[in-house]
């Protein structure tokens, strides 16, 4: 929808009056840019609204929990 609006407005405004040729090239470029921008915005909003998995905070690395870090030295501690 955003692409159609941007393409229409760009085509009409770039033409510059009744006596000039219609500028479909500028309208198509504006349509493409607005369409891709709306797809990117939609995908970012969808990714931002996803909840994290339940097991993500339990840890899976060297220190499985920040409350109980591994006591193995190794670095002079």
Biggest β-sheet description: none
Structural class call reads: mainly alpha
Percent helix range: 40-55%
Number of helices: 2
Indicate the mean pLDDT.
81
- Report how far apart the termini are: 61 Å
What is the string of helix and strand elements? HH
Unreliable sequence segments: none
Shape: rod-shaped
What percent strand?
Answer: under 5%
The Rg value, from CA coordinates, equals: 27 Å
Query: How many individual β-strands?
Result: 0
Describe the structure in your own words:
This protein is mainly alpha-helical and about 80 residues long. Helix content is about 50%, strand content about 0%. It contains two helices and no strands. The protein has helices spanning about 1-15, 25-50. Helix 1 packs antiparallel against helix 2 (about 25-50). It is rod-shaped. It starts with a helix and ends in a 29-residue tail after the last helix. The mean pLDDT is about 80.
């Amino acid at each position: 929808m955003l692409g159609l609006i941007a393409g229409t407005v760009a085509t009409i405004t770039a033409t510059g009056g009744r006596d000039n040729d219609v500028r479909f090239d500028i309208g198509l470029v504006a349509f493409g840019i607005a369409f891709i921008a709306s797809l990117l915005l939609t995908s970012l909003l969808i990714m931002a609204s996803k909840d994290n998995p339940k097991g993500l905070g339990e840890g899976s690395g060297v220190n499985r929990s920040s409350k109980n870090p591994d006591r193995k030295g190794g670095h002079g501690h």
